[in-house]
Amino acid sequence: MKDEPRRVEVALGERRYLIVIGRGLLDDRELLRDCVSADEVMAVSNETVGPLYLERLESAFAARRFASACLPDGEHEKRLESMLPVFDTMLVNGLSRDCQVIALGGGVIGDLAGFVAATYQRGVDFVQVPTTLLAMVDSSVGGKTGVNHPRGKNMIGAFHQPRAVIADLAVLDTLPDRELRAGMAEVIKYALLGDRDFLDWLEAHIDAAMARDPAAMAFIIERCCRNKAAIVAADERESGERALLNLGHTFGHAIEGARGYGDWLHGEAIAAGMCMAARMSARLGWISAAQRDRAITLVERAGLPIRAPDDIGPARFREFMARDKKNRNGELRLVLLRNLGDATVTADYDPRALEATLEAVGHE
Ligand SMILES: NC(=O)c1ccc[n+]([C@@H]2O[C@H](COP(=O)([O-])OP(=O)(O)OC[C@H]3O[C@@H](n4cnc5c(N)ncnc54)[C@H](O)[C@@H]3O)[C@@H](O)[C@H]2O)c1
Ligand SMILES: O=C(O)C(=O)C[C@@H](O)[C@H](O)[C@H](O)COP(=O)(O)O
Ligand SMILES: [Zn+2]
């Protein structure tokens, strides 16, 4: 018997949208046509995902004006220049302000296509069709769109919520193992920042999840989407608690930036960044050494890096961290652990704990 899709609502005051999670959704034309209501459709994907799944969208929207663009693959392509060919395609095809954009891909395509939608003719609607675990549990939800700048991650962008998120679990069958592991970093993030029960569950089921057990995957994706939907509903534009979703990201974004958005995947950098946050929290005495090790062990069991690359010194970390979007009045705000399953965003910490954590990169 086919499982019914799971549905998670993101409620933003009067506005709301659905995240639909299930196997085979890309073959459900009724759902696709329901979510994408416009007569003019622009699908954005990349050279890896497009050949695998774009045809499903093409055939679902054959009766409408349909245009598409497949960008080169990779995090380094998440930059302003990559948006131009997408705008060109939209203009050449005469797409009006009534068109809708579909982002078909991982977080890179989701963030970029979302920003295209936020800015094309001052803003059109878009639908997220995430194809990585990371995009299903995190980037497709919540409306953060944008691109990187050589001086910092996601430095140019806009809040622009999708009108729907369609997560077809079948597409994960073609996702490489390394990308699955990268997605698991954001999964572990939700547990550490605010969901202690989920942390216990993950510790018991991480091996099943890494083996792509279908029930475990569906449970994980729904649980993470519910967590994210609740945080985004409470603080859509990150004036407060949404910054908790940045656990591991102040360090992680510095790693990505210092490596030139190249060899370290976002999820890998965030994994190492979360371990740094755990070590710093332990140095501050906010969590015990045993709790720190529990967090790090889970990251390690997911096959993720637990250490930042040793060629990024404290000065380079600080250079990127000084530009972090969470900073206020020149103060470096960090997401740290007060307990497992209980993170806090604060600039109120002993700076020596940060210094020691940065100095120890490569040694611990
Ligand atoms: N907006 C947000 O809230 C948010 C949240 C988390 C991360 N992000 C951003 O997301 C990006 C990382 O996303 P990602 O990890 O999905 O990386 P990605 O988009 O680069 O995708 C990872 C790789 O998997 C390939 N791929 C995607 N789906 C596939 C499939 N089904 N089968 C085979 N290959 C597939 C892609 O072509 C790519 O090579 C980063 O830029 C990060 O900053 C944004
Ligand atoms: O949705 C959010 O809020 C997040 O912070 C989710 C993060 O996982 C994601 O990497 C996000 O893109 C980071 O945003 P930024 O504002 O720190 O650039
Ligand atoms: Zn992230």
From TrEMBL:
What's a Pfam family this protein contains? DHQS_C
Positions binding NAD(+) in this chain are: 73-78, 107-111, 131-132, 144, 153
Xref: HAMAP family: DHQ_synthase
Q: What is its EC number?
A: 4.2.3.4
- Cofactor comment: Binds 1 divalent metal cation per subunit. Can use either Co(2+) or Zn(2+).
What InterPro entries has UniProt attached to this entry? Dehydroquinate_synthase, DHQ_synth_AroB, DHQ_synth_fam, DHQS/DOIS_N, DHQS_C
The cellular location(s) given in this protein's UniProt record come to: Cytoplasm
Instruction: Give the enzyme's main class according to its UniProt record, as a single word.
Output: lyase
Q: In which pathway does it act?
A: Metabolic intermediate biosynthesis; chorismate biosynthesis; chorismate from D-erythrose 4-phosphate and phosphoenolpyruvate: step 2/7
Protein name, UniProt field: 3-dehydroquinate synthase
The residue ranges of the 3-dehydroquinate synthase N-terminal domain are: 70-181
Report the function annotation for this chain: Catalyzes the conversion of 3-deoxy-D-arabino-heptulosonate 7-phosphate (DAHP) to dehydroquinate (DHQ).
A GO BP entry is: aromatic amino acid family biosynthetic process
**One Gene Ontology molecular-function label:** metal ion binding
Q: Recite the UniProt keywords alphabetically.
A: Amino-acid biosynthesis, Aromatic amino acid biosynthesis, Cobalt, Cytoplasm, Lyase, Metal-binding, NAD, Nucleotide-binding, Zinc
